[in-house]
């Protein structure tokens, strides 16, 4: 029942569970419906994101009507105009009315509506946006008028939004989604699997078991019987398939739900306890050692280190409580290889070791069964064949161990050579650093001598500057003294000149007065011009004498 690994799957889309018992699943859809659908590994992922509709949240949303009014106002926080509407209108109004109005709206607004739902599914808005989405989902799932007959009248975008809200899968809003309207309606009314990579008609393979009949939207080909989730895990021990009804269960869910435990072996009626898985769908058991052996033989050669480490961890969880020798040995070997992988052992070596170990356990179990089968004698030829087979297996084991030892020796030699090379490089670097240190020391000494020389020059220039300053002060005092003396001489000469002029003016006035007196005495003189001429001549002489 091991499925082939599907081709590349995108990892940027999310989903929310439409089942109140299941949480939201990360979802990456694929359009390939021709793949073998025997395994849930070809489905969407079951990693928990949001919104998670647990029982407490469901009761709270159903019992508190006041909160419904709050969420209703929150969803319609962008008021709709006469021609436009909100997500709340799509969730609660009649299909035909909303469809008619959608045909009148531009494609940009319709894409905006789809973008709002995508934002809610991505969870970027926090708990408030999560509660808004849960309110819309509960409102859509509570409507009885949303049937296949009424949804035929729905607008394409309207149907995509309703399916996305009902299923919680973001891919139904993606631009690359090219499902027909009929398929979308079947997904909405739980007649087709909501896993895009599966898309099986429900119930899958016309299964009429209680789980497939009573669980809405459950697909036995790709969903876990316990948690109702689906994921993209393939070629792995993380899923367990029932040998009887082919229903699938997560290994972690089975361990958590105590569906994995010890039970009587059905091989040759020996009755020894072995690890078994009990399917919840049919209540039948399946042995786990053969399942693990088949998975490792068919898939382990293609696993990388991380995958091999994870699968060994799952095997360790399964056989941790094993009571028989084979299961305990497998548990111990898994723990040992986990430690070796963490220590750096190559995954190819670890893969060969676990495959050889599983073969040895299977052969030991077969030998024990045959030895206990009525104590019959083994023919010599068969005994020789078995001995040769055991010797061959021992040789193979020794070759594997020898290869591992040689690989470890080669790795150690390479590490030693690397260390020697690094040591040589470090020695060269140390010598270079020493040489550079000596050069730096010489440079420092040279700089110190230059600094001392410059300091001496600075002292000399400072001395000269002081002398020049004193000489300048002396010259300034001399200049000031000379300047004061010259000013005194100038003032003295100026006063003398002014005194001479005053004396001349005084003499002029005296002569003038004297002439006037003479003129009054000799009034009879006829020639006044001669007198004035004489007076002018005398004045000029006086001035010249000054």
UniProtKB/TrEMBL annotation:
Gene Ontology MF terms: zinc ion binding
Region: Disordered, residue numbers: 1-52
InterPro entries referenced in this protein's UniProt entry, alphabetically: OBE1-like_PHD (IPR047578), OBERON (IPR004082), Oberon-like_PHD (IPR032881), Oberon_CC (IPR032535), Znf_PHD (IPR001965)
Source taxon at top rank: Eukaryota
Compositionally skewed regions (Basic and acidic residues) per UniProt: 22-40
Location in the cell: Nucleus
GO BP terms, alphabetized: maintenance of root meristem identity; maintenance of shoot apical meristem identity; regulation of gene expression; root meristem specification
Keywords (A to Z) from UniProt: Coiled coil, Metal-binding, Nucleus, Zinc, Zinc-finger
Coiled-coil region(s): 409-478
Annotated Zinc finger PHD-type domain residues: 223-283
GO terms for cellular component: nucleus
Protein name (record): Zinc finger PHD-type domain-containing protein
